[in-house]
Write a structure and sequence with these properties.
39% of the residues lie in helices and 19% in strands. It is α/β, with parallel strands linked by helices and 350 residues long. It folds into 2 domains: 3-110, no CATH class; 119-349, no CATH class. Strands 4-11-10-9-8-7-1-5-6 form a 9-stranded mixed β-sheet, with helices on both faces. The protein has a two-stranded parallel sheet with strand order 2-3. Helix 4 (61-74) packs across helix 5 (79-87). It is elongated and about 65 Å long. The relative contact order is 0.13. Pfam families: DUF2332 (PF10094). InterPro entries: UCP012608.
Length: 350
């Protein structure tokens, strides 16, 4: 890719960060876009000469570099950079020195794709689980596609607004609509990811990819990581399509199997999406009132702000809903369930 495309990726990421409430990361990406072409050193050379696709939808190069810098702050490795982050104002000299002084660390960090696990999205999963419980009273077997560190598989341990004031993690998005109130129980949960991340061993990496000036997100993530140490989840490394075929070969009797994904399917290759949809359709043909299958998607669909939230339910017949829309980081939820036809996992690609 050309240097111009790298710079464009940083400017695009700056715009996205500004929209998603991170002025510090937006300013950081803008400053890097302005200065990297003239910056000396191995890091600037590597970034400007990036061999792959630097865009957010591909290699996410700006987030790789931003994550590396945040890791230096979180670990206390660069005190001057840490002070700069506290002020919320970019200091070109401090940033340039960090790129030069910690080149080996940053170059190593750039070699790994960003890995996030936004637990704010669990507000949507909790609401959908309650919505399902209001339709069918069976325990849930949950299967997450693109599970990352598995933090959202622990959604049953999180509270939503004032329903569980004693929970260690309580999600409080700006909620529009009538919140479902039925109770649910998760009997079993597991997930799949191409590159699962360990919530204990890789705690710093997960924290570093959470934008530094978003205190509420960082607090949520900290609480979720603490809970993950108490309630470990199972995330298998592999392709989501093959994994889902295996898990749905024999749908659980006496349970609702809930397959879900949040801002993940849109990154799956077309073959994986098609394989996942085929697995769902095969399992759907085996459902009845006691062997139930549900599919929840929260994905960018190009139909409005944030992500569209959709639900399909098979219990011998198919029912479908557009549940509403949600902010990508869970800052707000518009909960407006309406029956809808023709939904599908592949449609999540937008």
């Amino acid at each position: 890719m050309s240097a111009a495309e790298v710079i464009r990726a940083f400017r695009d990421q700056a715009s996205a960060c500004a929209r998603l409430g991170s002025p510090l990361t937006a300013a950081l990406c803008t400053h890097l876009a302005d200065t990297l072409p003239e910056q000396r050193g191995a890091v600037a050379e590597r970034v400007i000469g990036w061999p792959g696709n630097p865009a957010t939808q591909a290699d996410s190069l700006p987030l790789r570099l931003a994550g590396a810098l945040h890791a230096l702050v979180l670990s206390g490795t660069d005190k001057n950079l840490g002070h700069m982050y506290k002020t919320g104002k970019i200091d070109g000299t401090v940033l340039s020195n960090a790129l030069m002084t910690h080149a080996d660390f940053i170059l190593d960090w750039l070699g790994t794709a960003p890995q996030t696990n936004e637990v704010g999205r669990s507000a949507v999963i909790i609401a959908a689980a309650r919505f399902l419980a209001g339709k069918i009273d069976l325990p849930l077997h949950t299967l997450e596609l693109g599970a990352s560190a598995g933090l959202n598989l622990n959604f049953a341990h999180y509270g939503l607004h004032d329903d569980s004031p004693n929970r260690a993690l309580r999600l409080c998005p700006d909620w529009h609509g009538i919140m479902p109130s039925a109770s649910f129980r998760v009997a079993k949960s597991e997930g799949v990811d191409l590159r699962p991340i360990d919530p204990v061993k890789d705690r710093l990496r997960l924290m570093a990819y959470c934008w530094a000036d978003q205190d509420q997100r960082l607090a949520r993530l900290t609480a979720a990581l603490d809970l993950a140490a108490q309630f470990p989840t199972r995330v298998t490394a592999g392709d989501a399509g093959a994994w889902l075929h295996e898990r749905l070969a024999h749908p659980a009797h006496g349970a609702t199997t809930l397959v879900f994904h949040t801002v993940a399917a849109q990154y799956f290759p077309p073959d994986t999406l098609a394989s996942c949809e085929a697995a769902l359709q095969h399992a759907a043909a085996q459902t009845d009132h006691a062997t139930v299958l549900a599919h929840l998607g929260m994905e960018q669909d190009g139909l409005g702000e944030g992500a569209g939230v959709t639900l399909r339910l098979w219990d011998g017949k198919l029912r479908e809903w557009q549940l509403g829309r949600a902010d990508f980081h869970g800052r707000w939820v518009q909960w407006q369930p309406e029956p809808r036809k023709g939904l599908g996992l592949i449609a999540a690609r937008g």
